[in-house]
Design brief:
mainly alpha; 5-stranded parallel sheet; 15 helices; elongated; single chain
Length: 430
């Protein structure tokens, strides 16, 4: 098994690894288990994947395997039906099992088995035992023989003479089907020349098994019953960070909010990289978060937008208080921050007088120029100066005035509205 959590790259690894194996001359069968979940019969699904890889001239060999599998499936299904049915169903059971046995061709000995059970046993019970015996004979004798014929046809031009079956998405199947695939793999396909590799979220499957079969002992794992070698898929940290950076740095920003490098997609890439590194989010989750930003940038391509700020807000929606504002100080330039600033000015005006106010202004100026200098040198139109202030020369205005008076009331709310505007467009969101 190759094991990793959801969204940790199992499918990507599977595709790349299987290509490498094929390039080296191996016979590789890839199975996406969730695509066959609806079929209800994992044996048929597994065989179908094998037969589909046969050359056209060998298809008849595949048909024989299917015939054997059908026998196994029929008697097993009827036996299960018998176990589920209750009083008054014996006639139906008898007919169903008779039909199943008829399809088993040469199992004449079954009639003798039923007779030898004696008058003390009902016909239904006798046929149940007979059907189980028939299924077991198919499983241990006929089906293995046909599987080896199938394997030989598949590996005819291969040096290794083995068939590698890689099963993915098992942890996205219906629980009963996931368990059934594991059991079929063990009971039917455990033969020389067949190698199975499961791409799984082991913790999820263990929880399924615990729910189905009850808790095992502390040192016993359900997967250990099926898997000889268990490997962990762990992405290299530097490669992970590089992938996140490249994903964010390729965002389609049409009109940057400002000319400073702080508003570039490269800065958005470094920010996403920093957040991802410290958040432990899966790459799949990070892709979905950045997809929201991409959709926002495309839908509002005619607006000047701060791509790093959108990245911050999108991650903030996912991480909440886990994400601190200091990773992007300008994310604190909110309407409430502006209101708090002017309330403080009024308090100082009322108490300590103009000297204290000037000192407060100077402190605010230094803070802005130290922490968010990029907000003090934006294009004039970004501040959205109301008409009553049209005579103000913004190029010569103090940084605190431009940021707290004009920018803060709309800066974060506008970007919040843009991101919220596409929230419902991205599949997967409620």
């Amino acid at each position: 098994s190759i094991e990793a959590g959801f969204g940790r790259g199992k499918t990507f690894f599977r595709k790349a690894w299987c290509k490498q194996l094929r390039d080296e001359g191996e016979v590789v069968i890839e199975i996406d288990a969730k695509l066959s979940d609806h079929s209800g019969d994992p044996v048929v699904a597994l065989l179908g994947a094998l037969v589909s890889e046969l050359p056209e001239k060998e298809k008849e060999k595949g048909k024989k395997v299917f015939d054997s599998a059908k026998k196994l499936w029929v008697v097993a299904a009827k036996a299960t039906t018998r176990a589920l049915l209750r009083e008054g169903a014996e006639e139906i059971i008898g007919l169903a099992t008779d039909e199943a046995i008829d399809k088993l061709d040469d199992f004449d000995a079954l009639d003798d088995v039923i007779k030898e059970l004696g008058d003390g046993m009902s016909k239904a019970a006798g046929q149940l035992i007979a059907a189980q015996m028939a299924a077991e004979r198919v499983r241990v004798q006929e089906l293995p023989e046909q599987l080896q014929v199938l394997r030989e046809a598949l590996v005819e031009k291969s040096k290794s003479k083995k068939v590698i079956i890689v099963i993915d998405e098992l942890d996205r199947c219906h629980p009963d089907y996931a368990i059934a695939i594991l059991e079929a793999m063990k009971l039917v396909f455990e033969q020389d020349g067949f190698v199975f590799c499961l791409m799984v979220n082991a913790g999820y499957l263990e929880n399924l098994a615990r729910h189905r079969f009850g808790a095992l002992s502390e040192d016993e794992k359900y997967l250990d019953k099926f898997v000889d070698i268990r490997l962990q898929l762990r992405p290299q940290e530097e490669d992970f960070k590089t992938a996140v950076y490249e994903l964010a740095a390729s965002l389609p920003l049409n009109i940057p909010f400002g000319d400073d490098e702080e508003f570039s997609v490269e800065r958005a890439g470094r920010l996403a990289q920093n957040i991802a590194e410290n958040s432990k989010l899966s790459f799949r989750k990070i892709k979905r978060i950045l997809l929201k930003v991409e959709v926002a940038l495309r839908c509002y391509a005619d607006l000047p937008l701060d791509a790093p700020l959108l990245v911050f807000l999108a991650f903030k929606d996912e991480l909440g208080d886990q994400l601190k504002y200091d990773v992007l100080p300008r994310s604190l330039v909110t309407p409430s921050e502006s209101e708090g600033f002017f309330r403080a000015v009024e308090a100082k005006n009322a108490g300590a007088g103009s000297a204290a106010v000037k000192a407060f202004y100077s402190s605010a100026e230094r803070k802005i120029l130290r922490e968010t200098p990029e907000l003090a040198k934006l294009p004039v139109d970004r501040y959205r100066v109301p008409s009553e202030y049209k005579d103000i020369n913004l190029e010569r205005a103090f940084a605190w005035s431009k940021v707290y008076t004009f920018l803060a009331p709309h800066y974060i709310p506008t970007h919040r509205k843009v991101l919220d505007g596409v929230q419902g467009l991205v599949a997967g969101d409620d």
